[in-house]
């Protein structure tokens, strides 16, 4: 399954993420690929908003994992950026990835050994504010997401 | 009666054990700084800073030996309960629980950021009210303390911590990790030739460094698209100046608003040379004491955890042995566990 | 009295046993996924209290050293290692796959390694026939079939493979394998076995 969307602002990114919550199964694993500044954390903020999480979602780059339990379901935000050169990735992320809520992972390539059944989102920077979002997954559980995205395309 | 606190810190990259007797720091052993390769004659495997299970035994043993203290003499055991990396926190916590159970000593859960703030007590006693500018790898918070163990967060980052912004900008500029150190080094060679916006430049005490990071990225792309080269030293300088100026622009008015007697820096970014010189410069005309933590205090270590634990001990803040780690523990909840 | 504390937190269970010389006098094993850090020490307290002994009566701690879950494997090991560093308590660290069965049995041992793979090993009368490793599940199922036909037991939680199993005997495993395992010489270097590092 694959869909591509063209977004024109950070707000559109936020709103898109927020609207996806309705269609995401529990548990869900979402992997975000994109360079610095692409809007990965903004997307994560959107997901949190959709889950009614009031706390600010801040970058987990340093802590690698941040958890938010005050929303509809647990929300786990992972940033594997600092694990790039790490030989030893023994920090217990698997249990979170295999968890009970929505888990979003930035820089997933650095921990690809422990990720499976994910909805992959690639964000390309086109210009200052414009992004191209490409959604991909091989797992049928995300079907509704793709149906929704297809519908969106016809509207945008 | 001597009060001897043994503390363990393993919230992130360092595994550390420290011992404070009354007010004296007797030992502060940090895993990345041990010269144990020599001592153990090559039996020790190479110590990577994240291998907490490997390091935990060594740092505890070394600390006890250096301090010439036996576990029986220890009064209580402090440990970082959070925030930090969940897997790393678990190691420190299990070690502390093991010691607490075997030797029947109270277990004191300590907040990592409280540790960074209290690290300044190794320089000078805290005076209240004070403003703590907490700028560690994963946090940017402005904290007002009106008395010991009283933390009021008046502002914090809404996205990236300032340390993260440094690391990410360094990456964009092709510099090595950790980026903060590199940028600070190049800062001295460069000039403020690039104009960068100050994000969230409002009257609140909150910050947004993600926008600044993005501004650097956009500026770099723009320059490259015009077929020109980015002057790395100047960009590093412009970024550091903008980030630190913004940090202080928002933080320093709190001194007047809360009638602070002292302002201190806490966390890894307090090692930044421009921050250290600017804060002194900009508070010269205020009647206020500035505490700059010594460099050994700015990185994670157990000494600062032991320091907080000595205060918590007096208040009998003890944890049950069923306590778990909290990677997202908020500073204002430091008594909730 | 020579008391031994038997601990395993390598995967989904928290298993605690106490042995007096070679006799098991306490055992408790229950599902505690992601709660081992919280529960290990309180459960140890329960065990010791019920026997009216203290940690100071324990001379040896026997632990499962992995493979398993990253977090789980380190919990028991950190507890044991810390005590062994500052006291005279000795440690015996045994493969978490080995201890799923007894040292006088023949069995194939399995732990879910996720991503359609398993941690697998084969033990016969305490000897390792297939050393601890990760294999894709298709290969694992072939091995299980082959050894099941030879009369080997299948130990481990195999729900994820949709096949039946003969349970697991973690505490008995710790006890019996301890008898044929040497005490750890170099406590400071002791570390968990993750296996995934080698991929």
String of helices and strands of chain B: EEEHHEHEHEEEHHHHHEHEHH
Q: Which residue ranges of chain A are poorly predicted, with pLDDT under 50 across at least 5 consecutive positions?
A: none
CATH architecture of the largest domain in chain B: 2-Layer Sandwich
Main sheet properties of chain A: 7 strands, mixed
Q: CATH top level of chain A?
A: Alpha Beta
Give the C-alpha Rg of chain A.
Answer: 15 Å
Order of helices and strands of chain A: EHEHEEHEEEH
Average pLDDT of chain A, rounded to a whole number, is 87
Mean of pLDDT of chain B: 90
Cα-to-Cα separation, first versus last residue of chain A: 20 Å
Strand order of the largest sheet of chain B: 3-2-1-4-5
Tally of distinct domains of chain A: 1
Query: What is the β-strand count of chain B?
Result: 10
Strand content of chain B: 15-25%
Keyword list:
heterotrimer; B: alpha/beta; Nucleotidyltransferase, domain 5; 2 domains; five-stranded mixed sheet; C: 199 residues; 4 helices
Question: How would you describe this structure to a colleague?
Answer:
The complex is a heterotrimer of chains A (156), B (337) and C (199). Chain A has 156 residues and is α/β, with parallel strands linked by helices. Chain A has a single domain (2-143), classed as Rossmann fold (3-Layer(aba) Sandwich), CATH 3.40.50.300. Chain A is built from four helices and seven strands. Chain A has helices at 10-20, 40-50, 93-97, 143-155, and strands at residues 2-7, 28-33, 65-68, 75-79, 102-106, 118-125, 131-136. Chain A has a seven-stranded mixed β-sheet with strand order 1-7-6-2-5-4-3. In chain A, helix 3 (93-97) links the parallel strand 4 (75-79) and strand 5. In chain A, helix 1 (10-20) packs across helix 2. Chain A is globular and about 40 Å long. By secondary structure, chain B is α/β, with parallel strands linked by helices. Chain B folds into two domains: 4-117 and 300-333, ATPase, nucleotide binding domain (Nucleotidyltransferase, domain 5); 125-292, ATPase, nucleotide binding domain (Nucleotidyltransferase, domain 5, 2-Layer Sandwich), CATH 3.30.420. Chain B contains twelve helices and ten strands. Chain B has helices spanning 36-39, 52-67, 86-103, 112-118, 162-172, 179-187, 210-225, 232-251, 253-257, 273-282, 295-298, 302-314; strands spanning 4-9, 16-21, 24-30, 76-82, 107-111, 130-135, 140-145, 152-156, 262-266, 289-291. In chain B, the strands form two sheets. Chain B has a five-stranded mixed β-sheet with strand order 3-2-1-4-5, with helices on both faces. In chain B, helix 10 (273-282) links the parallel strand 9 and strand 10 (289-291). The radius of gyration of chain B is 21 Å and the shape is globular. In chain B, 56% of the residues are buried. By secondary structure, chain C is of the alpha/beta class. Chain C has two domains: 3-96 and 171-198, ATPase, nucleotide binding domain (Nucleotidyltransferase, domain 5), CATH 3.30.420; 98-161, Nucleotidyltransferase, domain 5 (2-Layer Sandwich). In chain C, strands 3-2-1-4-5 form a five-stranded mixed β-sheet, with helices on both faces. A four-stranded mixed β-sheet of chain C has the order 8-7-6-9, with helices on one face. The relative contact order of chain C is 0.19. The chains are: A alpha/beta (156), B alpha/beta (337), C alpha/beta (199). Chain B binds chain C through residues 40, 43-45, 51-54, 56-58, 60-61, 64, 71, 86-87, 90-91, 93-95, 97-99, 101-102, 320-325, and chain C through 35, 37-42, 44-45, 55-56, 70-71, 74-75, 77-87, 186-192.
